[in-house]
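Regression report. Comparing outputs from two consecutive submissions.

Submission 1:
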Amino acid sequence: MDPSSLNDLHQASRLNDPDASRSVAEPVISISGLDKVYAGGFHALKAVDLSIRRGEIFALLGPNGAGKTTLISVVCGLVNPSGGEVRVDGFDNVRDYRQARALIGLVPQELTNEAFETVWNTVSFSRGLFGKSPDPAHIERVLKSLALWDKRNNRLITLSGGMKRRVLIAKALSHEPRILFLDEPTAGVDVELRRDMWDVVRQLRDSGVTIILTTHYIEEAEEMADRIGVINGGQIVLVEEKAALMRKLGSKQLTLHLHAPLAEVPVALADYDLQLAADGSELIYTYDGTRDGDEGSSITALLGDLDAAGIAFKDLHTRQSSLEDIFVDLVKERT
């Protein structure tokens, strides 16, 4: 990827953007009390409240059928809401549809390109759909930024899956949006190409584009997102800074397999907040493994106090939680 091309792309967009000086502290997308009920009675979204910050990468996680694609479709103006409000950089996306939609680029999950069209023509055509006058220089910048310039005259049917996904991003950027939605951007892409796509997304964010992505890959959210949201059953379960989630990732468990089962945790060990498991034959200690120096000293103290209390163990092992564990637990709590 060419970072300089992305910077040029952003600078060119700002020259044509009368509102480029808007405060970065303002949310670029504000969603309030959003509901969506389909004709058959399915309640896909339930009173969703969400704010997306200008210039961030926001990852939306959720199981199949949780409401991710419906939420994106409503914000992008492709599906009408049943209630609530969506504002895109201050524009109501129902009353001010054209202004709101012009600010958004959408990269859908499905590969929907015209197979026998060239890269250049399909990206240029997408620009025209938004009423933008032809701008070959902008299309060139977009294609170069996505390493597609050498493929500009190739028909889409000849491209690899990864290249086709880049074309979808190029189409979404053709009309100079300030917000980019990526719906499962790396679905079906191999690991190497996935990491390549991550680089593209980071560079777009660094060029000033706000990124909202949905993904099934937990490591994708962990690798790229500034904030992470979890949706389940049409409701937002969690919105949190990635740094805060990473602190949760530092949570570790030490499991002690005891020689003799305990009926209860001795009072002398109450400060450790221990839990009994496996009918009292296991003692579980949860601690914060992100604090330098704390891990060894706390375990040493615990083992000393266990010995003083006459509790012997025959084996022990540690386990560190992951973002996937947190995600699964959150979803379980609400099913």
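Submission 2:
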Amino acid sequence: MLTREEDIDAHALSARGWTISAIARHLGRDRKTIRAYLNGDRQPGFRACTTPDPFEPFAIYCAARLAEDPHLWATTLYDELLELGYGFSYPTLTRQLRIRSLRPACEPCRPATGRAVAVIEHPPGEETQWDWVDLPDPPAHWGWGRCAHLLVGALSHSSRWRGRLCPSMDQPHLIDALDRVTRALGGCTDVWRFDRMATVINPGTGRVQASFAAVAKHYGVQVRACPPRRGNRKGVVEKANHVAAQRFWRTLPDDVTPEQAQQVLDTWCAKRGDTRLRPTSDGKASVVTVAAAEPLRPAPAAPFPATLSVTRVVSAQALVSFRGNRYSVAPELAGATVTVTLRLGAGHLDIATETGTVIARHTLAPEGAGAMVRDHGHVLALEHAAITAATSARPHRSKQRIPPGPAARAAADTLRTRTSGSPTTPGAAGAEVVIDLARYAAAAAARTTPPPAAPAGDK
């Protein structure tokens, strides 16, 4: 059985014109096995086991012991297993420990700094290094949240690099960025080296993800994982990450769109990055000159058909923005959230509701063209909705004189009649009470006038 890495290598070597016999000798496998995998008759990682694994009963004990003590010698573990009935050899034990990755890595014992660094030779056309770099605080109008992501691809030999801005690091965006950067670099190398990103390499096992194996076969490349905690193994792309952050992202204006920012990056790489001088056997030459001599294979005619999905909010004009263009939907969806789906390599995109119902399909416009792609039915529906909602009446003036009308005057007469027939002061029901104000005046005068003096004889 071939491992997934060997299966990818076999397809990559076959795409380069190697014969089945040569591939079998290179991988140390039988020719019939190689032919079966190349023809698709067998899949990596699947093999029916006809006999039980004799080491399986001891694997649990080994995993527990090594989890307790990662530094336990294999010879000591072998002595313990002999007491438990282990009947195989010591090399079998060490092989099973490696295959099953039972010994965990001890971080304090594996520092990443202060160690000697070897010089690694990078033959022309052999390797492309890939890595994500997080770019904080993108412009708010992009709608990308707190961080933008840049996939950087660098040719190890010439150090030529290109990057692709993405709102997400999921696998469809990764595949789209891989294809675009590969074409910008001029073609495919023999090997793609990745950091241990989860969309390509299983972080736990270090093996290629099954979902990415088909992508590697499509481009005819071999996938290599960078060893953990060995960032200098991919120092070319790490330096490109540093340059992209300091010389591109740090000075990017706030008023640019993602498409304009991508154009700024591409222009900088062509004018500044490719003009750097590199030492060669004949002296010094520019990066673009060294890269032009690399034997790169042409990229496939079409990108790998991954499906890319993003969410968007429909504008008041019933338009959906996607990669620098706007696409129409029905006017009833203004303000709603929709999903834009694009199959890489296709000439159209689909717009669906949150429930997954496709409501529009449009021809894909060139990226960043500022085009407005509208369906004729959507145009008519929007115009009808706008005409229906519009009115030709003049708005009311705030200082206009509007006296009470006939209806208001009739209601006022009814209120006056009702009021005049009801008592307003205490008294008999239905009787009109007349108040004479002269009596109140006399009473007030009497209270303020002092009484007359008494006669003398009355004392």
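Expected: both submissions complete independently.
Actual: both completed, but the second showed a warning that disappeared on reload.
Relevant detail on submission 2: The longest strand covers residues 127-136.
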